[in-house]
Amino acid sequence: MLLAELFMDAISDELAGRLLERSGKAGDVAAFHAAKQQNVRKCGSDIHQPFMSR
What we know:
mainly alpha
């Protein structure tokens, strides 16, 4: 499960960075953290669900 969390962290970093580049807010740290949290909330339960059902 720790490995899944590490992958989710890395992927959400990348997705947040790409989103902010497209929107022109690449240097906005608060927007980066907000976008990253949105990605984690959106996909986090889908990633953890298979591990929790065991």
